[in-house]
Amino acid sequence: MGSLKVCVLFLSLCAGVLSCDLTSSPEVVLQRTDLAAYITNKKATINPQYRLLYHVAPPVGWMNDPNGFAYFKGEYHLFYQFYPYNSSLGGPTGMHWGHSSSANLVDWTEHPTALIPGKEQIFSGSGIEISGTLVLMYTGHINAPEHSGLADTEAQYLAFSNDGIVFNKYKNNPVIAKSPNGSPDFRDPKVWKYGDYYYVVLGSKTEEGYGRVLLYRSEDMATWTFLNTIGQPSSRMGYMWECPDFFQLGNKFILLMSPQGLAPEGDRYKNLYQTGYIIGDFSYQTNQFVEQVPFQEIDYGHDFYATQTTERDGKRYLIAWFGMWNTTFPEAADGWAGAMTIFRELTLSGNRILMKPVSTITSLRESSAFNGNLAQNAFIELNKTGEINLSGDLSQAIDLDIKGAEGGDIRIRWNATTKIVSVDRDDAGERNIRQGPWTPVGSTSWRIFLDASSMELFCGEGEVVFSSRVYPTGQWVITNLSAQTLTVSAYRLRKSV
Ligand SMILES: *[C@@H]1O[C@H](CO)[C@@H](O)[C@H](O)[C@H]1NC(C)=O
Ligand SMILES: *[C@@H]1O[C@H](CO)[C@@H](O)[C@H](O)[C@H]1NC(C)=O
Ligand SMILES: *[C@@H]1O[C@H](CO)[C@@H](O)[C@H](O)[C@H]1NC(C)=O
Ligand SMILES: *[C@@H]1O[C@H](CO)[C@@H](O)[C@H](O)[C@H]1NC(C)=O
Ligand SMILES: *[C@@H]1O[C@H](CO)[C@@H](O)[C@H](O)[C@H]1NC(C)=O
Ligand SMILES: *[C@@H]1O[C@H](CO)[C@@H](O)[C@H](O)[C@H]1NC(C)=O
Hints:
Catalytic activity: Hydrolysis of terminal non-reducing beta-D-fructofuranoside residues in beta-D-fructofuranosides
Strand content: over 45%
Structural class: mainly beta
Strand order of the largest sheet: 22-33-24-29-30-31
Shape: globular
CATH class of the largest domain: Mainly Beta
Number of strands: 33
Organism: Chrysodeixis includens (Soybean looper)
Protein name: Sucrose-6-phosphate hydrolase
Signal peptide: 1-19
CATH architecture of the largest domain: 5 Propeller
Largest sheet: 6 strands, antiparallel
Number of domains: 2
GO molecular function: beta-fructofuranosidase activity
Bound molecules: 2-acetamido-2-deoxy-beta-D-glucopyranose
CATH superfamily of the largest domain: Glycosyl hydrolase domain, family 43
């Protein structure tokens, strides 16, 4: 099939929808206007104490998974699971897609809510630019009638926009109505193009109730053929694989996903759910993925889930929900809850993905807060935001206390004997530790990003990363508790959201 024909097929699909755009129903227009007014009014009542200054977060209400991360007409577009009416996840009442965009992955502009639920809730999905149209593919989740004993249903839907702001749903939704084995868990489509075809991976389940990923192909985005499964389901790999992503990195293929139901193993899998990746080889001729390196977590922090990536100019960028399903979000009492991590760039190094902050993030540096040797019990004061670049002698321990001047702290340590980095958070008097082994492949410094209620630690070239929400009272204070001199440069960061 030639690419011309693909294009024509797509345009004929799209043309029908675009004619719909012109006649958006008065109900939908009213819904959009009412919701925008609600958000504006509610926003004015938000308590800003924990409001993040350079992380994307919902204007009001609840946020979880990133969605539709794609480049379109000169900007990166980021959508997200959004429930405007309740910051405590209002339950099964109607997930929306919130929307922001950015030219540089650092400065973000908020847009009107992109998708409002109808009969179906708008669960997670992805985005792709096709011939000047931003096409979103999402899971339409329909709740079974209460007390019916029936399972909820999930199917895959499309929506379109020509301007990247106003989206309309495809009139012939859904485009994939059912999973091949009838499993009602069938969600989070991640779409990409290769050669003349569109491909999509979806999270689902085997008959035994193990997580698996399904691969489909289409010529026109409307008619999809199931090709194969990607990855090997097993009892050890959990009961559901959410938010799959599948892409080439270096000369390997990466299956990135968020499995649910992994049993804790020592320092691994301590969060309720995980996010990680399997490295292997894949052939578009046979559609076979051959696993080579088993599942590894991509981030060791307390609050990290449901990643999404997009590729541009040969670079692979990642974003994740800076949250976890069973944690409490203190900011919920302030009228909002949940956030995105900072954006990261991925590269492959041997058997591990390196994850670094995007290079443009240095544009956040507003002023220098410290530059030199951090002396005994010396501290750095940072107000609400900071970037700290720190290095020490890795043959000795490093111990750093990061706390709010009036409470709330997180401790970062390097154990030179075990070669383990740990991030130890005070959760209402209980120490809550995450840790992982670190073998530097290049740089031996740490980069720490602090925002009004978050901490992200990148070790070396991004071999080991921790993302954790933390809620300080008062400004950030960083204290050297190590028995060695640390070389530190620290910056105050500006607001970018
Ligand atoms: C928000 O959700 C919580 C938990 O589901 C519920 O207790 C509360 O009443 C809801 N608030 C509003 C304003 O709907
Ligand atoms: C969340 O789940 C993890 C892993 O099961 C558990 O260790 C932790 O105690 C849970 N947290 C809460 C607040 O329930
Ligand atoms: C950090 O503090 C330790 C003792 O707490 C001290 O021995 C060390 O010299 C300090 N680091 C620097 C850079 O001075
Ligand atoms: C801290 O930041 C707030 C606004 O974000 C500003 O009003 C205040 O002056 C800053 N404090 C210091 C000590 O810089
Ligand atoms: C961090 O500091 C080291 C020197 O200690 C320097 O080589 C490196 O470029 C700095 N990294 C960043 C991102 O500023
Ligand atoms: C490093 O880890 C070992 C083994 O858990 C422990 O005995 C030792 O006290 C740790 N060192 C520091 C400085 O915490």
